[in-house]
Design a protein that fits this description.
about 110 residues; Ribulose 1,5 Bisphosphate Carboxylase/Oxygenase; four-stranded antiparallel β-sheet; 4 strands; photosynthesis
Length: about 110
Amino acid sequence: MQTLPKERRYETLSYLPPLSDAQIAKQIQYILNQGYIPAIEFNETSEPTELYWTMWKLPLFGAKSTQEVLSEVQGCRSQFNGSYIRVVGFDNIKQCQVLSFLVHKPNRY
């Protein structure tokens, strides 16, 4: 058994290496398959006390394909490259966020 090196972990899936665009697409497809509403959020920091992130545009209520969501992720990346960016899945029945994962971490080290 090995102890992980001490480094900050962020959101769901943060113990894995950074996700490729294909892996992000699979996670987004899961969100769509579950009937959740995808949204993209960004923030300059990812501190545990930072509860509220800025939403990139409106939630993607009508999104039917992963490509629609990925194109919005790319748009957010190009405009806010120095920010953390995550994809969030909202459950419209429970009226809450049910999952989120980082799709971009800024290079600050």
